Amino acid sequence: MINIGLTTRVEDGRERRDCIDQAWYPLLSGLGCRPVLLPNFPDAPGGAQEMLRELRLVGVILTGGNDLGEFAEGRSVALERDRFESELISAAAATHLPLLGVCRGFQKLAVRYGAMLQRVRGHVAVRHRLDVDSPGPMPLGARDEVNSYHDFGLSSEGFPSCLKVVGVSADGLIEAAVHESLPQWGIMWHPERAPNDPRDLEILKKLFVPDGTGRPS
């Protein structure tokens, strides 16, 4: 088994909690990966880079949930998570550690490189068409639609040039992108909410276990 770090959403009630959808566990374990939950602790001794090293992670997934504090207000905002994930992206980049941003995670990845978010309609609890924009290393596969659970989206206007767009929705929003020189990818749909889709499994395998051993190619 190889260790894949998963960031956690923040829920604020009587307690402020880090939590995650348990559907990630069987999805990753079926690929020979051990999910390792990462606490939203930006002030951890040694920082994010030391955490990645000590946990012997082969990759990181920035999961969904919570709005980015730069663009939203309210209970769904988690500034400590925003800061921690920024440090994670930088730490992963420094060591070329594979990283996948999912939904909010993709938004965070894109914003870290200079993108802006916009509020969108018709992208919450629906399925919509996905058009492959250009070929690339991400194995999107032939598919008519993907699931969608987000109030904010990414448009091509001002999108960072270091991220190559590989998938768009019918209304022109960016749904998938890959970094031009780093193993950092982003998708706007949730593979854990369609855990038996072989195309999503191929994306995870290509990024994290491309040779079947957990060593990135």
Helix coverage percent: 10-25%
- Total count of strands: 13
Top-tier CATH class = Alpha Beta
Our measurement of the CA-to-CA distance between the termini, rounded to an integer number of angstroms, reads 17 Å
Return the structural class.
Answer: alpha/beta
Number of domains: 1
CATH architectural label: 3-Layer(aba) Sandwich
Mean pLDDT: 91
Note the beta-strand portion.
25-35%
Order of helices and strands: EEEHEHEHEHEEEEEEEH
Which sheet architecture does the biggest sheet show?
Answer: 9 strands, mixed
- Biggest sheet strand line-up: 4-1-5-6-13-12-11-8-9
How many alpha or pi helices?
A: 5
- The oligomeric status of these chains comes to single chain
CATH topology: Rossmann fold
What would you call the shape?
globular
Q: Which parts are unreliable, with pLDDT below 50 for 5 consecutive residues or more?
A: 212-217
Q: Report the C-alpha radius of gyration, rounded.
A: 16 Å
Name the CATH superfamily classification.
Class I glutamine amidotransferase (GATase) domain
Structural summary, described in words:
With 217 residues, the chain is an alpha/beta fold. The chain has one domain (2-208): Rossmann fold (3-Layer(aba) Sandwich). It is 24% helix and 31% strand. The protein is built from five helices and 13 strands. It has helices at 24-29, 47-54, 79-95, 104-112, 198-208; strands at residues 2-7, 9-12, 16-19, 33-38, 57-62, 99-102, 117-119, 124-132, 145-149, 152-154, 163-169, 174-179, 184-187. α2 packs across α3 (79-95). The two termini are 17 Å apart. Mean pLDDT is 91; it is low at 212-217.
